[in-house]
Amino acid sequence: MPSSKDPSTMQTRARAGVVIGALAALAPAVGSPVTAHASGVAPAVVAAPTSAHPTWVRSFAPGPGPGRGPAPAPALVPAEGRPEGWAARTTSVTSAPGAVAAPALATGASRIRVVTTQVVSGQPVITTATVPAAQAVGAVDRAQDAPGAVAVTVDTRVRATAYNDPLRPQQWSLSALGGETFHARVSTAGVTVAVVDTGVDGSHPDLRGVLVPGAQFLEPAAGGTRGTGAVDLDGHGTHVAGIIAAVAHNRLGIAGLAPGTRIMPIRVLDASGEGWSSDIARGIIHAANRGAKVINLSLGGTRDAAVDKAVQYATAKGAVVVAAAGNERAQGNPVTYPAAYANVIGVAATTSARRAAPYSNTGSYVDIAAPGDRIVSTYPRTRAGSGYVRMSGTSMAAPAVSAAVAGLKAARPTLTTSQVQALLSRTAADLGTRGRDNTYGAGLLDPNKALCAVKACPAALTWSGVRSWAPVVGTMATGTVTARTVNGSVLANAPVRTCWAMSHLRGRLQCSDRRTDAAGRVPTNFTVRSTTSVTVRFLGASAATSSSTTVTYRPRAAR
Questions:
Q1: What is the mean pLDDT of the chain?
Q2: Which of 107, 196, 430, 521 pairs as cysteine with 266 (C-beta 3.0–4.6 A)?
Q3: Rounded-to-integer distance, Cα 234 and Cα 271, Å
Q4: What is the side-by-side order of every strand in the sheet holding 480-484?
Q5: Torsion angle of C-alpha atoms 86, 89, 95, 99, degrees rounded to 10
Q6: CA distance to 163, 235, 354, per residue, from 10 (Å)
C-alpha cells in the first residue's frame, strides 16, 4: 500500500527507499490494485529488498527520475510617559558615536545604515538613514540627539531564519512550502496525525518524542495483530512520518513541515510494503477512535467497501483523511482509491520545477498537488546507515498536505473535511491549465496562505504611484501603500501610522495617524526638502497583524 514501486523487478509490487544509482537504467514496475506512492534515493546508499509475493494491497515507487498625506508633514508627536522597560534609553544613545559606528565601519562598507529607535505616541518607531561611511560617526551623533531616541545602532543584514538541521539545505520541498514560516505561525503540538503505513521506526533520533502509541494490523502470518506500530521493517512509513514531523532545529538530519505534531503509527503493511485492505480499514477506524485529527494514507489500490466505510467513519468523527493519488500514470493511469473517495483529499506530486511528476496519476479525483519528487526524509537506520534517504512519489506529497492540515486543525479545531478541502483549494497556487485541472487539482499546496485564511497573519504592504525615488527638491514626492491580507483581501478603514524622517531636520520624525480608504490605500505624499525615509506601519486589525514598510527618497537638485 505505500506508494512506491521497485524498478528493480517487473513484479506487481513496489518498494520505497531504492538506490537511484542502481536503478537508473531500469524500467518502472507495473502498477497494482492498491499502492503506496514513493521512490527512493539516498544521501547514503540503500539497497532495495527484492521479496516477491504480492498481496492484495502493496506499496510501489516509480524510478528515480525524477489617501493623501501631509504637505508639509505633521509636527513630531512627542513621546509620553515614564521611560521604563522597552522605552528606556540604552547605552547606545550615550556611548561615543564612533563606538556605535565601529562594527559597520569594520566591514569596509562604503555606505552605512544608521538606525534610530524613538518613542512616539507610546510606541517605538524605527527610522533608517543611509550615509557614506565617512559620515557614519556624524550620523550616529545626530541620531543620538533625536527627540525620544532610545536606541541607535548600525544596520545589519539578516537572513531568513533557517533550521540548523544538516540536511535542511537539501529539502527543496520545505523551502517551496515556506516551512520555517509555517512552523513559526502555528503550533501543531496538540494535533495527532495517524500514519497508516508500514509502521514508523520509533528509535530514529529525528523522531524522538514524536510518536504516540499506535497499533499493528496484519494477518497472523505476517506478524500478528499486536504491537504499537513503532517498528518499520520496510522504511516507507518512517519516511512519510519524517516529512510531517521530524524534529526541527536539533542539529540532526532534516526538519518536518509541522514539527511538534504527534505521529500515531498504524502498521498495516508488512516488511515488503504490502498488506490487505481489511487491515487498512481496521487501521483507519483505530486511528479515528484514538483521536487522530488527520489520517495519512500514502497507499492506494482499487475500490474497497470496507475501506470506504472506514473513511466515512473517520470523517464523521472529525478526522481529515489525506491520500496519495498514485504513481501509475505510465501503467494506464488507473483511478486510485482511497484518494478517489469524495471525502478524501487526493494528492498529486510535483517536482522542484513546479511541474507534475511524470509518474503522478491524473484524474478528477486529484484535489491538490504537493512536492513529491526526490524528497529527503527519515529512514530506519537498519536499512540506511545514515538514517535518511531521498524518495519520490505521491506517497511523499500526501504527508506534506497532512502536515498543512495539521496546522489548520491546530488553528481551528472545528474545521471539517469539506472546509479544509475548500481552504486548500482557495489558497493553492494555480498550475497547468487555468483553474482546476486533472493533473494538479486546485494547484500547488500553499500552507501559509491556507493558514492565514483561518488565523490572522502580518499584513502585506505594497507601494504604488511613485513617480520617482529621486524627486527634485521642492516638488511633491508621491507614493501610495496598499494594505492587504496575505491572501489578497484589502484591509479597508484600518489604522495606519506614517512617519517621515527628514535629514535636514536631523532625522526627526514627523508622524501622522490615519486609516486606509475603502481600497486599503494610504498616500504618503510630502514636499521634498532633503533625503527622507518614509515608514508606513499597519497597526493591526482582526484580519491581519501589524507590519511595516520603509522606503527612502533621495532628492536631486533642479537642473
A1: 82
A2: 196
A3: 5
A4: 460-464, 480-484, 521-523
A5: 30
A6: 40, 21, 30
249: Cβ–Cβ under 8 A, 6 or more apart, which residues?
163, 164, 165, 255, 259
Per the annotation, the verdict on 308 as an active-site residue is no
DSSP class of residue 44 equals S
Taking only the tens place, the pLDDT of each residue in 96-118 is: 888 888 878 877 788 888 988 88
Of 4, 32, 298, 395, the catalytic one is: 395
Q: What distances in angstroms separate CA 108 from CA 112, 116, 535, one per listed residue?
A: 10, 21, 28
* CB contact set of 380 (below 8 Å; sequence gap of 6+): 201, 204, 232, 233, 235, 238, 387
Could you tell me the three cell numbers for 539? Answer: 497597526
* Residue range 400-440, pLDDT digits in tens: 999 999 999 999 999 999 999 999 999 999 999 999 999 99
404, containing H or E segment: helix 394-411
Residue 242: all three cell numbers together: 519524517
Sequence letter at residue 87: A
Q: What share of the chain is helix, strand, coil (3-state, %, to 5)?
A: 25, 25, 50
Catalytic one among 37, 204, 236, 286?
236
SS (HEC) of 410-453 = HHCCCCCHHHHHHHHHHHCECCCCCCCECCCECCECCHHHHHHC
For the residues 480-506, what does the mean pLDDT come to? 89
Please name which of 430, 423, 390 lies closest in space to residue 409, comparing C-alpha atoms.
Answer: 423
Q: Are 97 and 137 in contact (CB under 8 A)?
A: yes
Which class for 275: exposed (0-12), middle (13-18), buried (19 or more C-beta within 10 A)?
Answer: buried
d(CA 378, CA 286): 25
The Cα angle at residue 362 between residues 31 and 194, in degrees rounded to 5: 75
Whether residue 395 lies in the annotated active site? yes
Give the N- to C-terminal CA distance of the chain in Å, as an integer.
Answer: 75
Active-site residue, selected from the candidate residues 4, 32, 39, 197:
197
Strand order in the sheet with 320-324: 215-216, 262-267, 192-197, 294-297, 320-324, 344-350, 368-371
Alpha carbons 534 and 518: distance in angstroms, whole number: 22
Residues 6 or more apart whose Cβ sits within 8 Å of residue 431: 350, 354, 355, 356, 369, 439, 440, 443, 444
Q: Stretch 334-339: mean pLDDT, rounded?
A: 96
Q: Is 197 a catalytic residue?
A: yes
Helix (H) or strand (E) holding 408: helix 394-411
Asked if residues 132 and 496 have their Cβ atoms less than 8 Å apart, the reply is: no
Q: Of all helices (H) and strands (E), which one includes residue 320? A: strand 320-324
pTM of the full structure: 0.72
Q: Measured between alpha carbons, how far is 62 from 359 in angstroms, rounded to an integer?
A: 6
